[in-house]
Amino acid sequence: MEFLELFDLHHSAHEYPDFLPYGKRRKLEIARALATEANLLLLDEPAAGLNPSETAELMHLIRKIRDEFKLTIILIEHDMNLVMNLCEKIAVLSFGKKIAEGTANEIRNNPQVIEAYLGTEKEKSQ
Predict the structure, then answer these.
(1) 3 with 41: CB under 8 angstroms?
(2) What pLDDT, in 10s, does the model give residues 72-99?
(3) Which of 47, 95, 106, 112 could form a disulfide with 102 if both were Cys (CB 3.0 to 4.6 A apart)?
(4) Can you spell out the DSSP letters for 84-108?
(5) SS3 of 43, please?
(6) Side-chain half-sphere of 90: how many Cα atoms within 13 Å?
(7) Nearest to 30 by CA among 61, 57, 69
(8) Which of 66, 26, 16, 69 is closest to 47 using CA atoms?
(9) Which residues pair with 100 in a beta bridge?
């Protein structure tokens, strides 16, 4: 119940997860993982399918979990706004190979990342 309250899900404690709205189900999945008392939390695309408001709430929640529970969190995510505003250290993969690692600012300005994800000027003009 402590984790349900932390995630503001205590009102839904007796509902089946399948009947919860998608955003609440995602929060419930994280609450269940925390209940295992793990030292490491792996979140695989937690923002997938969430609207911008739910994503902002998720970002706040992940920050709170990190700070209150002193957990290491590994985040696999394609929502770059979430990644850039949440992660202290970022690793970027392209076709399964790591092409960059660093802070959000370092990643944002990395030529390899820009080329891999935005393309070169030559590619854009074709």
Answers:
(1) no
(2) 999 999 898 999 999 999 999 999 999 9
(3) 106
(4) HHH-SSEEEEETTEEEEEE-HHHHH
(5) strand
(6) 24
(7) 61
(8) 26
(9) 92
In sequence order, the 6+-apart residues with CB closer than 8 A to the CB of 55 are: 47, 79, 81, 82
Q: Copy the structure tokens of residue 54.
A: 């739910």
Strands 72-76 and 40-44 come out as parallel
Bridge partners (DSSP) of residue 44 are 76
Tell me 77's DSSP state: -
Residue linked to tokens 């007796």? 14
Tokens of residue 8, six digits: 């503001």
- Is the dihedral angle over the CA atoms 62, 64, 66, 71 positive or is it negative? negative
Query: E strands, the chain, where?
Result: 40-44, 72-76, 90-94, 97-102
> At 116, which amino acid appears?
A
Q: Are 65 and 41 in contact (CB under 8 A)?
A: yes
Q: How many residues are listed for the chain in this entry? A: 126
